[in-house]
Amino acid sequence: MLKEKIKNLPKSPGIYKMKNTHGDIIYVGKAKNLKQRVNSYFIQNRQHSRKVLEMIRWIDDFDYETVDTEFDALLLECHLIHQIRPRYNRMMNYYEEDYGYFQFIDKAPYLKVLSEWSEYGLVIGPFFKQSKIQELKQIINSTYRLDGPLKYVAGIVKNYDDMTPEAEFELRVQEIKQTLLGQSTALLTRIDQRVQAASERQDYEASAQWWNYYLTVQRFLRRNKQLIQIMQNQTFVGILQEDGVYYCYLYAKGELLNRVVYHRKPTFQQAKKRLEKDISKKTWQRLASKERLEKADVDLFPIFFNYLNQHGQVLGFEA
Asked: What is the C-alpha separation between 138 and 239, in angstroms, rounded?
C-alpha cells in the first residue's frame, strides 16, 4: 500500500505527515521533491540515524500537502509541528527550552537570564539560545562590572570626577540596555578598548580573550538585528523568485500575515501595498497591542530570514 502511494507522489515541494497504525501523526517533514524525500525512508540507507530507523518501524501511512516552493514547505512544516507536536520532531517540539530572556532589575545582580517572561523589570527577548545568552551575560558582567568587589573601583563610562559612582553605574546599565535593544554598539567599543589596552601592556593572552568576547557579541548582535527590529514594530516584506514567478510575503510581530504572487518583478513598495491591502483593521489593531513576542513567534524568525536572505530578498519598513 505504501509503495503504491509513494509511486503516485508528485515531485513538487510540500510537507508529509507520517502516521502510525492508530492514525496518529508521529512526524512532519518538508521536501523540495516529495516523491524523492518520502521514498528515501523506505530504501536501505546507512545514513539513517537510530531515531529515523525507529520511526520507520512505526509508519503505517502518510498524508501530504503540496505547496509552490521549498520556502512555503518550511513555513508550513514549522506551523504544523508547533500545532501537532509529533513524537519524532523532537528538536522543534521542545523549542521553548532553547529560548531565554535578559532581565534588568534595580538591585544586584542587576542583569539576569530567564527561561520565561517576567512582568518585573525590563525584559528583552526571547533570544536563541540559552547557552549563548548566558555567555553574553558573562561578557557584559566582565566588561561593565555589574556586581562583585570591583563594581566601584573605577568608572567604566565616566570618571568619578564628573559624577557619583551610583550615577555612573546607572549609565553603565543604560548602555547595556541600549545595546541589547539594538540602539547602540557601545558594548563592542568597550570591549575593543580592552583589547587595545591588553595589547599595549603586552598581555597577549588577555588581548586574545577580549577579542573572542568581541566576536561573540558581534555575532549575537548581527544574528539578532532583525529580531530586535521586529520587537520594535518593524514590518518586513520578503520576495522570492522561482521559475519566473515572484512570491511575496508580509511578516510582522513574529507572524506571517500574507502571501501574494506576481508574474512580473514588483518593487518592495508595490509588494508591500498589495500585501497590506488584504490585512483587516482588526488584525493591525491586534498586532499594535501585542507588547511582546512569544517563543513560537521567534521560532519562525530564523526560517523566514535565513531562507530569504540566502535565496531572495528582505526589506524592513517602519510601522
From this structure: 38
